[in-house]
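In this supplementary section we document a worked example of the pipeline. Step one takes a protein sequence of length 251 as its only input; no multiple sequence alignment statistics are reported here. Step two produces a three-dimensional model, which step three serialises into structure tokens for compact storage. The input and output of this example are shown verbatim.
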Amino acid sequence: MAKQYARAKVLGVEIDNVTMDGAVDRIKGFVAAKRPHLVVTCNPEMVMTAATDQLFAEILRKADLVVADGIGVVWASQVLKRPVPERVPGIELMEATLAAAAQNGWRVYLLGGKPGVARDASRAMQQAFQGLQIVGEHHGYFDKSGEAQVLESIKAAKPDILLVALGVPRQEKWAAAHLGKLKVPVAMGVGGSFNVWAGVDKRAPEWVQKIHLEWLYRLMRQPWRLKRALAIPQFMLVILWERLFGGGAER
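The serialised model returned by step three reads:
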């Protein structure tokens, strides 16, 4: 029987050994603790970014929960003999968190996206999750001069959950920099999830998701992602090299 680890290490980035249900349970515990916690949904691109961005790598190391958002991370954990149980897609973890928020009366704040996207996503979320309290929204197109206003808006709203859609790695760096002052129990980077809920973008059909080609579907719809998508084959080659020559086997 394979050993079980609290975290799987993928090229120096530690991934929590949790299922979707386990991740939601952890988030429930974070809210109950009423102390700031950072949740990261990690994909291969983020692992590769951490290899060259020391600040980002340190943020991932100190994050309270890092889940495998991306089948590539799950595959890598298996190749390196420290497998995580399943993929925990970021948008689905966000949705499960919203469902828990509606059930438990948690307050939610949406930060990010183009002007109007967070508002439209908020409306759709409140229709989908009966009783969900979204206590504020703000777009992600702000600079240093407008940051103080954003911070004051979040503080005044007193959310339990802060969903940050500023893109990687900006969203994780922004949350890590301000979470202590904001004192929000849970901050989670959610990438382009607001766009999906606002109807700006579409997720891949379910059958594409099941065969783990959602990344290819996004690339076909958004060719500008090509440069980012090139991180995936690079990631796979580095993982195989680590397995064969870097001592990446189970110890």
